[in-house]
Amino acid sequence: MIEISASLTTPVEAFRSMGALLDAVGACIFSKDLLGRYTYVNRPMLALLGAQSVEAVLGREVGDYVDQQSADRIREHDLRVLHLGEEIEEEETNVFGATGEQRVFWTVKKPMHDAHGEVIGLCGVSTDITERKAIEAQLQEQRQLLLAVLNHIDAFVYMKDESRRYRFVNDKVAREWGIAAEEAVGKRDVEVMPLERADKFWELDQQVFAMGQPQIGEESFVGPDGRLVHHWSVKVPITYEGVPTLIGFSTDISEVVRLREQLREQAIRDALTGLFNRRHFNELAEKELARSRRHGHPTALVMLDIDHFKRINDTHGHPAGDTVLQRVAELLRAQMRLEDTPARVGGEEFALLLPRTDAAAASVLAERVRCAVREAEGLLPDGGRVTISLGVAVTQGEHKLEALYAAADAQLYRAKQSGRDRVCVV
Ligand SMILES: Nc1nc2c(ncn2[C@@H]2O[C@H](COP(=O)(O)OP(=O)(O)OP(=O)(O)O)[C@@H](O)[C@H]2O)c(=O)[nH]1
Hints:
Strand order of the largest sheet: 2-1-5-4-3
CATH architecture of the largest domain: 2-Layer Sandwich
Helix content: 40-55%
InterPro entries: Diguanylate_Cyclase (IPR050469), GGDEF_dom (IPR000160), Nucleotide_cyclase (IPR029787), PAS (IPR000014), PAS-assoc_C (IPR000700), PAS-like_dom_sf (IPR035965), PAS_4 (IPR013656), Rev_trsase/Diguanyl_cyclase (IPR043128)
CATH topology of the largest domain: Alpha-Beta Plaits
GO molecular function: diguanylate cyclase activity
Organism: Inhella inkyongensis
Protein name: diguanylate cyclase
Number of helices: 16
Low-confidence stretches: 1-8
Number of domains: 3
Radius of gyration: 45 Å
Bound molecules: guanosine-5'-triphosphate
Mean pLDDT: 93
Number of strands: 15
CATH superfamily of the largest domain: Reverse transcriptase/Diguanylate cyclase domain
Largest sheet: 5 strands, antiparallel
Domain GGDEF: 297-426
């Protein structure tokens, strides 16, 4: 408790009596008379003015210590306090004559009154906020830099909390939703996108909150134009303004996924007929044989070859030969069950994999295919007919693909040898 002695008659004397205490306050404290001359300064103020002693400052005026512009502004503030009785709270930037240093203050000035209520001067407290201002400016700069990065990066960046409310979205997200980025803050996911998509995104979000670990994954959803959109998303748990939140970075990889699927298709399909190629057919056949081994059911393999194909090429030209291959492929597809797999395994050689099919059923199918090709019209430009030969083999105990190939090939050879346009079965 600070007691001001009853014998002290003016506020300035009161200040002086508390000298040691006011010197210890980490702010500049001063008082001025009606002409703006210092009547009291504490030690920090003294240091700021660059003066040697209190006595050297008393009776002098601010213009003796700061540059002209700062002095004019301070005088103007002082006049408002002294003549209009205003209380002022303002930020001041002052340049000090002694050092030329520029410092920022938060200054509070109030009028001082005598016993009759007449203004006799002012007292003020100036807190040096130069460092705080510098830090604030630095933070603001960093924030702007961060925003510039987040808004120009080619990714959707967002922050979302556990109640599925967005806490931040970058410009790219806002543009997608057709609203301003600030508008999105506080909105729940279902307010800005269809429920189905919101639930899709929430699947990975939930894992982030449940595990407290970053989660990475592909997110696929139906876009506004009805096409599938694929995002590659990285979502990281953070605490934002004291609330568990995730920050997510999602990149549209739809084009990459389409290319990936295209490449995969190219890798497994024959370009001319669209049927599976030999390598992929072998993979599927190996799997089917493993299944048939486990369950003990038969699998049939039909090898078929277009008769005198070389002659077709030679007579009608290579493009016409290609058309025949395409038409035969279509006929095969049309004749097969859903679970059967046709493939082009060589130039004019095709294979059919028939799961759960014994020799009798495979022969029926092979015969149907043979007839379909033989009876098909318009395969050749001159209206001539195309025929095929087929060899059928069925797994027997061993279930080895090479053995099955060899057996079916042997039957195909037999069909060719015995006049073509026929089916031979083991
Ligand atoms: N148009 C076309 N011809 C192809 C293609 N791949 C292979 N061939 C041709 O297919 C013909 C196959 O002929 P061969 O193996 O002698 O058999 P073939 O003439 O069908 O006689 P058989 O099988 O004994 O009835 C060759 O002339 C190859 O050049 C292709 O993609 N397009």
